[in-house]
Amino acid sequence: MVKHGTPQRRDVFFISNHVSWVDILSLAGASGTAFVAKAELGSVPVIGWLCRLNRTVFVSREDRGGVADQINLLREALADNWSVTVFPEGTTTDGQSLLPFKSSMMHVLDPPPPGVLVQPVMLDYGALAEWIGWIGVEAGIDNAKRVLARPGHFPLHIHFLEPFNPADHPGRKAITAEARRRIEEALVAALGKPLRRFPHDVAPVRYEAEQPAA
Hints:
Blueprint: E1 2-4, E2 12-16, H1 22-31, E3 34-38, H2 39-42, H3 47-53, E4 56-59, H4 67-81, E5 83-86, E6 117-124, H5 129-132, H6 140-149, E7 157-160, H7 172-191
Parallel strand pairs: 1-7, 2-5, 2-6, 3-4, 3-5
Antiparallel strand pairs: 6-7
């Protein structure tokens, strides 16, 4: 793991792209943050347990009626642990794409708590990103077994980008858009090429892959 930039240690809301459950373990080691992650991850043996050690708040993508409760959990985690990370794509991707960012979890920043900054984070697994990514129809346990069985190390560059004051971008949608803009810019620079559309449907976040022309 190679860390670029300096993570804020407290009073910070990290917003990151999402490739793998490895993201949670690596970001926790690099910054000491707590997390908000999809509920499915909590049911994966060993991985769910490791995530709970990092004070992960699990949220259900299907439970749209429970957003208020999830926001309260997030607000409590931010107050208790000083730093919290969210993955607003709502799912994991292939490291070559960036899905639309959901702004629902940003309610906690509207209005922003006093003194809290937003720090975008870009995760780059290089050429192995697609292999590591938990994508498509692969079950979580199968992905975990596959990744854990791989001999040796794999590259992960964690880019802690310049933090910004959420008050400078009023409203949760504006905060979300600014974080995504910065992450996309950094990811394009790391890949050295434009991002591509994610090739898999993700029904829980209402994302449909582009269909090939007839």
